[in-house]
# Entry
Amino acid sequence: MSDMLRITGLVSGMDTDATIKKLINIEQIKVDRAKQERQYLEWQKEDYKEIANLLRGFQDEYFDVLNSDTFMLSTNTFNLFSGSATIDGLESNAVSIKTSSSSVKGSIKINSVDQPATKDKWVSDSEVRGNIVSSEMASFDGTNVAYTDNKLLSFTLDGETRTINLDNGLTTNDEIAANLTTKLKEAFTNVDITVATSGADPNKTMEFHIYKDGTTSAETGHTLTVGSTNSALLSDLGLKAGLSSSVNSSMSLEDTFGITSNQVISINDKTFSFTKDTTVTEMMNEINTSDMGVTISYDAFNDKFSLESNIVGTDSNITVIDSVDTLFSKMKLEEGNLSNIEAQNAIFTVNDVLTTRSSNTFELSGTTITINEKISSAMIIDVTSDTKEVKDLVVGFVAKYNDMITKINDKLGERKNYDYKPLTSEQKEAMGDDEVEKWELEARKGGLRNDSTLENLTRKLRQALYESVDGLGISLSDMGIQTSSTYTEAGKLVVDETKLDKALQERPNEVIELFTKNSSTTYSSFTNESTRYKENGLGHRISDIIKDNIRITRDDSNRKGYLIEKAGLATGVDASSEMANRILEMDDKIADLLDMLSKKEANYYAEFARMESAMSKYSSQSAWLTQQFGG
# Structure
């Protein structure tokens, strides 16, 4: 009803609002029914999306190449072999073994490994930053404004920050340095930080040394950094915030290395260009994310840079061309100032044959072998049949399939509870939240009962599993997987694990092909769907059926998957699906009914207003006549 404030029934004494409410009740019932129908559509749409998410979860687990352990479309997943490596009967980690579906049972002998393949690596011989060294200090006479206004400074040592307060009355560079030494020793007690000056007055420089506690022996592995407190005093001291005894990667090349011009470096014939404002992090990231196959890194503990090839073998040797006395020389990565661990190829003897490889990984008889370290005694690699992992994979696949089918069948068989209808706003207001929730759980049941889209889906899934695959002489029943004989389980599969294990041992290649066989006709070739279906193994068949239902790409008829067309995507705004259009149509119907209700309500109020007016006029006339007759 309208929210308009009306004053009615003053003359007649009638409860006009209640009367009109009863008169328009039939129209309100029409509105309530339309809203209930709209709620049914919303629930049905949600149920479709729930099924779509169920299919998507199954697809992600078994038909997504990123899940290599459960990817049912690849022969590599069906690895029916295991391998072991022993030296003198004891297991060894000197090599790693990875069997595959194409491995061959038998033994491989690694007589020896003279040397594994290694990477080319350059490492700075000396520290890059060393001690903090200031630029020239300002002349001090005790009256410097920056000094007299604020004597606080902050320093960070290995992540611990301390604030120090310089003494009053310091008048020379040497006094400043000596007072810094005292304050820093008090602030950081695990080491001795000594500040020494050099040069001539009045513009000396300072150098911060880190010594072992109580000694004058330098102690490496520490990082001392100047804090940002009191920039004015820092400037007079020839210091700046962020200046550190190790490289601060967030600082520019100019602040870190004193570089003032553009830098051009060639690594493995690729040119990199940097400006003085490029930060150390930006410089390293640009090199590391390039396709040059090298990684540059910084070891703050030892204050050294390293440049290392990403792959082993002599084919990966690093070449660098740098301008003289520029970036790489400042990083101590120049000839004469670095250690070069040269790349080498792997040298080993396998099955009595000496060989050299540029990689530590090689394949032999379908088994991948990776050398981890030198071997001086003979190693025996045994490759044996092992069906456990594949059996567990198939059993797990069947269990998840059954779970999916059960949930879909539950929706198809769920009966509507006609005693529970969607609640009106007034009904919800009269109930508690828990009561509303319980009521709506009953009211929304049966939304997908006997739904043709879902029935078509389950029918196709059952057919896909039991119709023969072209060119194969094996079926699920041959490997111990059959439909349950219990009628109420509606298409669920049961596994005879003994029979499955036997099939994996005696017919491994056929089992693998039954699941992984892929038609030469692509999925997008919709005109040849029948050919693809017949040629496909079970994995691709089921994957295709799921795609047909939840595909977000369009086919030749410009349609997405059935469930997406029906209810839209799982997330985002949906304005074009079948259910969305039906809901919009219902919104229009509700709007029309509300408009009709409003007009009838206004009509009734107008009629009652005329009645009140007439009664008021009659009352006035009656009173006048009574007065005339002396009443």
